[in-house]
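Checklist before submission:
- one chain only
- standard amino acids only
- sequence pasted in full

Submission:
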Amino acid sequence: MTARSSSPLLWMSAVGLLSLVTLAVPAGCSSTPPNVGAVCAADGGGCDPGLLCDTQIDGGYCTTPCSAPGSTDVCPEQSVCASISSGSGTECARICNVQTDCRSDLECNGITGSSLKACKPKQ
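Returned file contents:
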C-alpha cells in the first residue's frame, strides 16, 4: 500500500473523530444560565426545567426555593437566595448590577446577608 492510498482512510478517520467531539461537547455544556427572574405562568410555562413560577409576583417570576439568604450555593447560576416577595419565604433571585439587568417591572436592590443585588418587585 502506498501513502497515497491510505490518505482517504486517514481523512475519514479524522472526520469521524471530529464529528464525535462536536456532538459530545454541546451535550454537557450550556452557554446560558437558567432563566431565573423571567416572566412565567402559573403552570410553570416560561421557566427552564427545575424552576417554578412564583405567581405572587406580577407577571410571574421563575425561581426555586432556597433557605440561606445571601447565599449562591444552592441557587442556579447568576442567582442568589433572597426574600423577594412577601409571604413566599426565600427563593433564588436573579443577580443584577444595574437596573437594566432586570425586567422593567422589577428593580435592582440589595439583599440581606450579601453584598449582591437582585431583581425584586418594585416597592
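Reviewer check: Residues 5-30 have pLDDT under 50 and may be disordered.
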